[in-house]
Amino acid sequence: MTASRDRTNEFQSVVQLMRGRLSNGAASGAAASASEQHSQAKARLHQRSQFNQLARRVGADLKSTCAKVEKLALLAKRQSLFDDRVPEIQELTYIVRQDLNALNQAIGSLQEVSRNGQSQFQQQQQQQSRTHSNSVVLALQTQLANMSDRFRNVLETRTETLKQNAARREQFSATSSTVDLLAKPSLLAQDDELHRTSSDVAIDMSGAEANWRRQQQALLDQNEDYLNSRADTMRNIEQTMVDLGQIFQQLATIVREQDEMVQRIDASVDQTTINVEGAHAELLKFFKTVSSNRRLMLKVFGVLIVFFVLFVVFLS
Amino acid sequence: MDFTGKLIVERSQRCNRSKVREQAYICHCYIRGDYLAGICISDDEYPDRVAQTLLNNILDEFTKEYPASSWSSLQPGQVQFKQLESDLARYQDPKQADAMMRIQSEIDETKGILSQTMDSLLQRGEKLDDLVARSDALSAQSKAFYQTAKKTNRCCTLL
């Protein structure tokens, strides 16, 4: 019989590891082992894997929300007078806000988990893992703070573009539409407050506040109908004016072409006048020649006399 | 009418514009951020936008005349607001009162006039074409006439 090594302990630790990975959050793992150290180690692993998974999830959510904020920034920058994508932007804003809330809550719970997990165990052995979890939570919080800062900037750029649009609309119409700016800055001011407080510490957002903000969103949409109709009318007017401009342009081109034709006509008629004048003069000369030339008369009579003489000579 | 107005204002929310159908009329309602509300009752065909613009203007003028601090001390029925009547008289015809609709109608008129102008311009072009051809022919014939006259004058020496 060969010497056998007792690897029970290793086997049991491996089993605990696998069990801890499989049944995360389930309390069934605690019942399997008897020894205090094993249960402690298992619970520790259990807590650690839970913490890690939660942190991973929070990181993934953070990344997706970051992508949404970037898209929102792009949309807000591209706002022009004709290309309004207001419902999309509002939807996106709403979604991003929800995500930020959820992330806040998740990071808060993460902190709780890490703090609770640590309090049960021997402090000395957990020093490194505690600092590790603390740094993980801190990193997630800073990322969340950066993203909420970017979100706030995007909202500010959006108000800027809206103000510019309103100013351009005022140039075209006499009525001043100052009302539409009142509601938006108030919503943004609230956003600013919220994000400023949330960027330092992960706070717990109450459900009532989120509801109230959702209501504000709905009110803003109703206001948007009136503003949208105004915007549509203004767009029509602008389009008509552009059409009018084009018509005028074509008018000018046609008139210019006709100007050339008129000049041709003018030249022809002048030429005709000259020709007719010349011919008239010639005729006058001819008439003068015919009517008052003595030479001619002499010639005519001479011819007559010659014929007469010939006639007489032939007869005699 | 008063009762309906009060009911609608109580049911509506702040910073909100709404439109309620009441038998044969439509009641436009607008509640501003500082809780000042305006109601405009009109028939079916009055454009919504113009009604809301009217409410905007009237609320602004009202605020100018009676600042917000004096609202709690005003008694209903005692408030004199002369501009209301003149505004109402003006807004009877939405096409004239609302700047945007006025501009729209004027622009449409201008467009019609411009298309007429284009037509007459094209006719003018045709006539000018005709004139060009005829004046060319005239010039050629007068030239021939001149040549003939010259020739006639020259050969008088024959005879």
TrEMBL record, chain A:
Principal location listed in the UniProt entry: membrane
Any one of the GO BP annotations: vesicle docking
CDD domains for the chain: SNARE_syntaxin5
Membrane topology recorded in Swiss-Prot or TrEMBL: Single-pass type IV membrane protein
Protein known as: t-SNARE coiled-coil homology domain-containing protein
Keyword Glycosyltransferase: no
Family the entry assigns: Belongs to the syntaxin family.
Top-level division of the source organism's lineage: Eukaryota
Short name of any one Pfam family annotated for the protein: Syntaxin-5_N
Localization per Swiss-Prot or TrEMBL: Membrane
GO cellular component: Golgi membrane; SNARE complex
From TrEMBL, chain B:
Domain annotation V-SNARE coiled-coil homology: ranges: 99-159
SMART domains: Longin
Cross-referenced Gene3D superfamilies: 1.20.5.110, Longin domain
Keywords from the UniProt entry: Coiled coil, Lipoprotein, Membrane, Methylation, Palmitate, Prenylation
Any GO molecular function: SNAP receptor activity
Domain Longin: 1-88
A Pfam family assignment: Synaptobrevin
SUPFAM superfamilies, sorted: SNARE fusion complex (SSF58038), SNARE-like (SSF64356)
Any GO BP annotation: endoplasmic reticulum to Golgi vesicle-mediated transport
One Gene Ontology cellular component annotation held by this UniProt entry: membrane
Topology with respect to the bilayer: Lipid-anchor
Record InterPro entries: Longin-like_dom_sf, Longin_dom, Synaptobrevin-like, V_SNARE_CC
Location in the cell: Endomembrane system; Golgi apparatus, trans-Golgi network membrane
Domain of life: Eukaryota
UniProt similarity note: Belongs to the synaptobrevin family.
Name by which UniProt lists this protein: Synaptobrevin
Species this protein is from: Macrostomum lignano
Record lineage: Eukaryota, Metazoa, Spiralia, Lophotrochozoa, Platyhelminthes
